[in-house]
Amino acid sequence: MTDETDAPPSSPASPNRRARQCNADYRWTLPKVKAFLLALEQCGRVAEAAKAVGMSRQSAYALRARLDGPKFREAFEGARRMGLRARAAASRQRLHAARSRWEGPGLAALDYLRAAPSQADISGAYADMLAAQADMRAEQADMIMHEADAADP
User: Fold this and answer.
1) Per-residue confidence band for 149, with pLDDT thresholds at 50, 70 and 90
2) Structural domain range at position 38
3) Which of 33, 41, 136, 145 is the one with CA 20 to 30 A from 113?
4) Domain-located, residue 12
């Protein structure tokens, strides 16, 4: 006859307890560092790249401080610079696409206004406005590129 108190405890794991995490889940591993550098190369933002690999921005900067060798610092900054350049290029493409969309209908309207001789002053003002907007957009693209180049040490 066995006593119930002698039986081994067979209680299932408490549903309130979290499963124990593997070290690779919350620590920097070599595959995570490589994925982080690739993500940083694509987006140019440390926070975005760190989030993509399941880490925080603070831990990414702590990793850079901990691995303060010339090779890692060069890889980190090089990837960040490439990402900033990629962001600036994408911004220029969006700007060019927006300019193309604007100029298409705008030029048709300008042709219409030029056809009406009584509207000559209005069409000149419209053409000046289009030129000023195009110059402003070009200056914005140049400023973005200048900021990306200025970020390069």
Assistant:
1) confident
2) 24-68
3) 136
4) no
